[in-house]
Amino acid sequence: MTRKRRRLTIIGGSLAVLAVAAALVLNAMRDSIVFFSTPAMVAEKHIQAGKRFRLGGLVQPGSLVRGDNLAVTFTVADGSTTLPVSYKGILPDLFREGQGVVAEGALDPSGVFRADTVLAKHDETYMPKDVADALKKQGHWKDDYGAKPDVNAGAQGASRAAQSAPPARQGASQ
Amino acid sequence: MIAESGHYALVLALGLALIQSSLPVLGVRWRDPILMNVARSTALAQLLFVAFSFAALVALHVTSDFSVVNVFENSHSLKPLIYKVTGVWGNHEGSMLLWVLILALFGGLVAAFGNNLPLSLRAHVLAVQAWIASAFYLFILITSNPFLRIANPPIEGRDLNPVLQDIGLAVHPPMLYLGYVGFSISFSFAVAALIEGRIDAAWARWVRPWTLVAWIFLTLGIAMGSYWAYYELGWGGWWFWDPVENASLMPWLAGTALLHSAVVMEKRNALKVWTILLSILAFSLSLLGTFLVRSGVLTSVHAFATDPTRGVFILLILCIFIGGSLTLYAWRAPALKQGGLFAPISREGALVLNNLFLTTGCATVFIGTLYPLALEVLTGDKISVGAPFFNLTFAPLFVPLMIAVPFGPLLAWKRGDLLGAAQRLTAAGVAALIAVAVLWAWTRGGSAFAPLAIGLAIFVIGGALSDLAERTGLFRVPFATATRRARGLPRSTWGTVFAHAGVGVALIGIVCETTWNSEYIATMKPDDVAKLAGYELKLDGLAQRQGPNFREMLAQFTVSLDGKRLSTMTPSKRNFTTRGSSTTEAALLTRGASQLYISLGEATADGAIAVRIYHKPLVLLIWFGPILMAFGGMLSLSDRRLRVGAPKPAKAMRGLQAAEQVV
Fold first, then answer.
1. Considering only alpha carbons, which residue of chain A is nearest residue B614?
2. Which residue of B has its CA nearest to A128?
3. B518 FRET partner, CA 20 to 30 A, in A19, A131, B47, B433?
């Protein structure tokens, strides 16, 4: 086999693998990407029931109701609009009323957001970035939220450590 | 005084790095061995000063000197000593100082053990190292000085984030940095080779051990981090496809590819240009990881730097080094001589295939990690790319790679015999098929792909063992002869066997854990019994306890199997008063390679507590695999042929002359 043919074989093989990878990526992009919305954006865009998205906002103080067998409901607000959320499972350590939260799930036909994952990727002074940006955009940002940034999430490994409130239900992320 | 002297030492290290960046290069240009040798002494002195600076920061943390901002923000006088020390790198400034310390350490090692390198190559390598070091010293001194003082020192610190107060922080970041920064050596070697315009098999022999060292640490670091996440976060996940994790996975994939292509280059003098490119890519991805983590661009908790100057500074470093090295590559690489020929079906061909899939896999991770950032910048839309994306892209690319793994070592160099290799893998293939059939028949539930994936893993492990049996003639010659041959095998061959088997072992763990793990979530009162996977877990009671800097609520469970009492497990929930935050300390019970895992949720008013219990079959294999891989790497490293600094005086002389001709 000449150098030229060898090179062509290798280039051809590489292109084939790259094409497959590109197809996989495009396919995955279509199906598995989750958008982020706030309650106001939900109201605006009329997201259809059953479509998965991430909901971010503040947990409305006083809205948390614990039902039987770990069922909870609470309301997520972003100043102008609110959206009721229901969830079954253990809430993350950092979940508090009045604090930022990100929940993943879908709307049911009655307009309640059924979350299968609740994340509270922040400590008591730190907002999830999505939530903070959305609130800032709408002018509901209180300066003291950002006053004490979380300077502690350390080196690399803190990655997960700092993600201290991982999806409360495991299936969602594996 | 300690803070000021630490700061001063860091400034001096910058000065030394600047000298090391310039004089040796001039020395090569003027063929002045004295100037070239400046690289060696400055590299060692630089290491000394950075080490002093780092020691100063450690001393400040240990003595709880709250007049230093960094200590005040991340420490507390009541914190146990070990966390006072590990807290040094549990924050931005300290971890950057650790980064440059390790960079200087690797530079110092090259200086100390690189006596057999051609003088000009060593001068260039150390100069490139010093360019990187200077950039990061400047970054630390300008934007992230860990030695800043507070005008009115407070009496107590703000404490370290509770989730970081764990032994994991002591081990994981240093390991990971040893891996990340270790790739700077192969990068420097690559850039030096491009500057000198010559590269040969001896170059690969010098680069391979350094790459291997970095790769071993990165492998262990990632595995360690994954296990830390698993037990510390309280929901039993071990990989989140978080951008920060991806940032460490990408250099690992590129580094694994580099290890394999360096073999081709060393043995066959082929794939030179590609090996150089991979060296540049592996370190570029490490720099990218540093940028992602340190700049705060991510929607991740690592986004703690609210100060944009840091992000811009690192982005600048990133652009200069990646852009510069790739430009140099585009300019000089075509001039490098082509190496040996080989047929597509050959050991070289298999290694090319390995490289192809590893780099493509790396590219999909790259896209999944950076696409959300690009989209947000361009359109303002926020998306999250999570596990489903990577399962759909990364996993399919790994299947053909895994199938190919056992074939590689069985193919001959230059022109291989695929049919012959396949025949020698019959036993492994049969074992895999039996495993698939048995699993299909015996297991219930879970994806239909699971038995196939385990079959694939068995094939990889069987393939590694077949390779060993083939080389020793096991089953064909008397056992004594086979063991003698096994002892005579090069350690790098043993390394390959262990590393490849490790991949299969990890895959088994991953598949078993994700497919057959079972969970139980409920509120439990004392004396309630939970049943899971045949185990009975009885909640004996709840208790309160005071720790050094936290209060914790403990729950005690008695675990029994078939009515026989096995053990007790005590998960807890800790409340850290200083930060008003809490952490969940899971309890683990190991049975073979499987684990029971309990973590606590909220306690309710009537004395019940929310409990999450998992049974994770063979979960430990997930981390045992990488340990095997790293062990294989260490065996390879101890190979006589590759031992760091194995002298090759004749080569060195020739290299020096050749280099002089080029310059």
1. A170
2. B299
3. B433
- Predicted TM-score (pTM) of the model is 0.88
Distance set, CA B469 to CA B278, B466, B488, B629 (Å): 33, 5, 13, 19
Whose tokens are 């630490």? That residue is: B6
In the predicted model, is pLDDT for residue B152 greater than 70?
Answer: yes
Q: Which of B172, B236, B360 sits opposite A156 (nearest CB)?
A: B172
Counts for chain A of helices (H) and strands (E), in that order:
4, 7
pLDDT at A157 over 50: no
- Give me the residue from B74, B91, B173 closest to A157, CB to CB: B173
Tokens linked to B284: 């570029």
Distance CA B173, CA B92 (A): 12
β-sheet bridge partners, residue B613: B520, B598
Would you call A159 and B225 a contact, using CB atoms and an 8 Å cutoff?
yes
Which range, of A131-135, B83-87, B291-295, averages the lowest pLDDT?
Answer: A131-135
Closest C-alpha to B291, from A161, A151, A156, A126? A156
Phi-psi label, residue A46: left if phi above 0, alpha if psi -120 to 50, beta otherwise: left
Backbone φ and ψ for B328, nearest 5 degrees, come out as -60, -40
Q: Which of B94, B166, B393 sits opposite A24 (nearest CB)?
A: B393
For B298, the closest chain A residue by CA position comes to A129
Dihedral of the CA atoms B187, B193, B196, B199 (nearest 10)? 180
- Residues of A whose CB is below 8 A from B385: 32-33
Cβ contact A160–B232 (<8 Å) = yes
CA distance B470 to B464: 10
Contact A28 B74 (CB under 8 A): no
Which residue has tokens 């310059």?
Answer: B663
SS3 B94: helix
Task: Give the tokens for residue B591.
Answer: 């049975």
* Confidence class for position A137, pLDDT limits 50, 70, 90: low
Cβ contact, residue pair B353, A6, below 8 Å: no
Q: What is the pLDDT of residues B33-91, one digit of tens each?
A: 999 999 999 999 999 999 999 999 999 999 999 999 999 988 888 888 999 999 999 88
What's residue B443's pLDDT?
Answer: 79
Tell me the chain A residues in contact with residue B614 when contact means C-beta distances shorter than 8 Å: 170
Give the model's pLDDT for residue B414. Answer: 83
Of B92, B144, B181, B100, give the one whose Cα is nearest residue B313: B144
Chosen from A152, A169, A173 to mutate, greatest number of chain B CBs within 10 A? A152
What pLDDT score does B436 carry? 92
Nearest CA in chain A to B358: A17
Q: Which of A36, A159, A163 would you mutate first to test chain B, the one with the most B CBs within 10 A? A: A159
Please write the tens of the pLDDT for every residue from B613-625. Answer: 999 999 999 999 9
The closest of B124, B106, B231 to B98, measured between CA atoms, is B106
Answer for the pair B509, B622: CB distance below 8 angstroms, yes or no. yes
pLDDT in tens, A14-31: 899 899 999 998 888 887
Question: Encoding tokens for residue A97?
Answer: 């009323």
Q: For chain B, how far is it from start to end, CA to CA, in angstroms?
A: 47
| Cβ–Cβ under 8 Å, residues B571 and B543 | no
- Angle of helix B167-196 relative to helix B243-268, nearest 10 degrees? 40
The helix (H) or strand (E) run that includes residue B612 is strand B609-616
Nearest to A166 among B233, B388, B396 (CB): B233
Q: Note the pLDDT of residue B642.
A: 57
